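Readers of this paper often ask what the protein records in our data store actually look like. Such a record has a labelled line for the sequence and another for the backbone structure tokens. Nothing more is needed to write down the fold, since each code stands for a local backbone conformation. The remainder of this section carries one protein's record, kept here as part of the documentation.
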Amino acid sequence: MAVERKLAASMQNQTFSAILFLYQQVLEIELDRVEFLRAQRPERLSAVLAVEEVRRIHAVLDGVPRLVGELLYGGGLGVMEVAMWFAVAHNVACGARRATAM
């Protein structure tokens, strides 16, 4: 299923577990030995930059892009968190009484 329909391995495994639960717990049907090839998750290497690489990137950035880069790296924020932060800052700058995001 994961290969034919290009689904993530976790989706295939979750679907299989749900069907197995349905049969065993809800319908109370014991399945004889279930032979099923579980999808394998691809091995992923995390991309981590060295401190010097981050300094070189920040050195070529200016203004808002530099601020975003520093928030992402130094604050440990994700892209959506930074976007939310900017939305709140924009609301406040525009005179909104409350700092609400989206």
